[in-house]
Automatic annotation (TrEMBL):
InterPro entries recorded: Aliphatic_acid_kin_short-chain, Aliphatic_acid_kinase_CS, ATPase_NBD, Butyrate_kin
Keyword ATP-binding appears in the UniProt entry: yes
Protein name: Probable butyrate kinase
UniProt-listed PANTHER family: ACETATE KINASE, BUTYRATE KINASE 2-RELATED
Key words, A-Z: ATP-binding, Cytoplasm, Kinase, Nucleotide-binding, Transferase
Family: Belongs to the acetokinase family.
Length: 356
């Protein structure tokens, strides 16, 4: 049998996740947390590169893993230019783009450089899979009402596409023949519509429901007033909308479990806000149905919030009229990366090459 051992790396805002897979099976995984205090020593995110690399190397050494034993390295895709779904071979153009001109600053922008640095001395390849910038929107779905301002897709594609593929595999369905709306319910929420094997429409975190961290879609004129109020720098306003909106703005926590504890203790505002979030999620799911003229076969709820029966019950009550609802909780990013690159190693998929 061919070597199917894959090193998976996923640098996130608050942790570096590392895992080793043989085929579909995880051998071990670790999530190394980074405190705010530790990260505040770095002026910009990319300055953390050497620190994160040594952590990964130490972790591999601790587990007795030699780099030459791997068939490939799989890295979370960062804020690349608009790309296709699936695998991309990490190359210098990708690494430089993510270093110097990414669409957004995020720790995942370092992933491909880390992967390349680990893989290339051994002559093995590094890949990303289903980056956040996969853009397969139908031209008509990408339109907005302001000429020259199209929608540019950005979502939790690694998890949503893996959830859609897993659901089809488990139910003996052909992915390319099944219309599915998949909602990633995590710290941020994005929802996409899968049809004819592509993600042809979506609701982004900045357009749709509020979430634990995100304010979601706000009335645009109000946002303009906020931006010109003199109260915020651009960075402060972005943080308010992207990282300290949603549940954090109401309760000071992004942990839905804590909000649900308040509800259990009779907090009416907490119950009202959770119902509001469920309604906003259901409305955003429904918003994607016209793109396939209502022919939605399944709705899938995934991500960390999908562990909450209270939340998924509320959503189902409001949206089950549209299509059967399946729940695949968790963010499953490490497994999705490993399985994606495994398909490349098994020649079931061909990796794309990012070019200028
Ligand atoms: N058992 C649970 N019940 C309710 N909420 C949960 C549960 N487990 C995780 N969560 C919530 O899921 C969210 C994180 O989801 P996740 O998909 O891991 O996030 P991200 O998209 O940021 O990676 C947090 O708000 C967390 O409180
Ligand atoms: C919207 C796609 C990427 C993203 O925002 O990820 P997090 O929710 O993990 O920050």
């Amino acid at each position: 049998m061919e070597n199917e051992k894959i090193l998976v790396i996923n640098p996130g805002s608050t942790s570096t996740k590392i895992a080793v897979y043989k085929g579909e099976c995880s051998q071990w995984s670790e999530s190394i947390p980074h405190s705010l205090e530790e990260l505040s020593n770095y002026t910009c995110i990319y300055d953390q590169l050497e620190m994160r690399k040594s952590l990964i190397q130490n972790c591999l050494e601790k587990h007795g893993e030699a780099m030459e034993s791997f068939a490939a390295v799989a890295a979370r895709g960062g804020n690349m230019p608009a790309v296709h779904a699936g695998a991309y071979e990490v190359n210098d153009y990708m690494v430089n783009f993510l270093h110097y001109t990414p669409g957004d600053q995020h720790a995942s922008n370092m992933a491909s450089q880390l992967a390349l640095d680990l893989a290339s001395p051994q002559g093995i390849k590094a890949y990303t899979y289903d980056a956040v910038t996969v853009d397969e929107l139908l031209p008509v779905a990408a339109m907005t009402g302001l000429k020259g301002i199209p929608r540019q897709a950005r979502g939790h594609n690694l998890n949503t596409r893996a959830a859609a593929l897993t659901f089809c595999k488990n139910h003996d369905l052909n992915y390319a023949d099944t219309n599915m709306i998949v909602a990633h319910l995590g710290g941020g929420i994005t929802i996409n519509l899968h049809s004819e094997g592509r993600m042809i429409d979506m609701v982004m975190d900045q357009e749709g429901p509020f979430s634990p961290e995100r304010a979601g879609g706000l009335p645009t004129y109000t946002v303009v007033d906020m931006a010109y109020s003199g109260k915020y720098t651009r960075e402060e306003l972005m943080k308010r909308l992207q990282r300290t909106g949603g549940l954090i703005s109401y309760f000071g926590t992004s942990d839905l479990r804590e909000v649900e504890k308040l509800i259990e203790n009779g907090d009416e505002e907490a119950a009202f806000v959770e119902e509001g979030m469920a309604l906003a999620i259901a409305k955003s799911i429904a918003k994607l149905a016209p793109t396939v003229e209502g022919k939605v076969d399944y709705i899938i709820l995934t991500g960390g919030l999908a562990h909450s029966k209270r939340l998924t019950d509320l959503i189902q009550k409001k949206i089950a009229f549209l299509a059967p609802v399946a729940i695949l909780p968790g963010e499953n990013e490490m497994q999705a990366l490993a399985e994606g690159i495994l398909r490349v190693l098994r020649k079931e998929e061909t990796a794309h090459i990012l070019q200028p």
